[in-house]
Amino acid sequence: MLAKTKAWFKNTVFVIVADHCASSAGKWEININKHHIPAIIYNLNQKPEKIDRLMSQIDLMPTLFGYLGWDYNTALYGKDINQTKIGEERAFIGNYRTLGLLKGDIFTQINDRKKTVQYNFDQKSGEMREDQFKNSELTNETISYYQTASERFKEGKMKEIQK
Predict the structure, then answer these.
(1) What is the C-alpha separation between 67 and 54, in angstroms, rounded?
(2) Percent of the chain scoring above 90 in pLDDT
């Protein structure tokens, strides 16, 4: 790696993150299997580790800030995965018409036609089966995340918080 020969290398952290697969942008349905993306945080001068927990792209920067020991205030929804309790992991997944929240093995989708669908997601096989039993708590949580984010953005409340 050519960067290792540069004077700035020891003071540089590289964040490499993929995007979803090219064929993931369905009109309404979301295929979770096409939204698994890797991320690498490199050059933190610590022992390499693999984190195999559920998280979203919005969690990447809070996780990096945690590794760097940075203290900050934010009104955003991302979380440091290393400070997230086991069982509280979640991932936000969306496309042009549909938004979703994956928590545990339940994926809740809401779309612009005001339709809500829940699926049981088998992480090992990647199979999604529509769940006839609606978990209203997860439905409400999904709607509230996206609704409050929209309202906060429109009102300018997602900007930097001044101390």
Answers:
(1) 18
(2) 49
